[in-house]
Amino acid sequence: MKIASPVFKNNGKIPEKYTCDGINISPPLEFSDIPKNAKSLALIMDDPDIPDFVKQKFKIEVWDHWILFNIPSNTNKIEEGKNPEGILGVNTSKKPSYQGPCPPDKKHRYFFKFYALDIILNLKEGATKKEVEKAMKNHVLEQAILIGLYERKK
Description:
The chain is 10% helix and 34% strand. The chain has 154 residues and is mainly beta.
């Protein structure tokens, strides 16, 4: 299974347009080689490189940017600035939406984690990443990761 974007390569720079320095819309994504027996898909975008002051302030280890689940298993792309059919979870800002990169200190890595699941998750809109990950446990058929990098101009 693969995840890619036509606007940045794996371990490449996320264009400013998709960040807090631009218009802060989600980048286009493309999926391929999804297992035939997948019942649903999930996408989690997060940032593990947050500084200690953010970890302490929010009592977190990772900043969650975009949580999507119960995406139909025949989905092969997400259009720029759109959410696919499916259900939105909440990001760290407690919003059911995409939140673009906005690192306060240095270059950060943004992980777009794509999952093929053997079930449809029994969760409602507004589920947290923790709830989605718990519900997915033992139901992941395959996983693919795309990493984007972003550093704000000083």
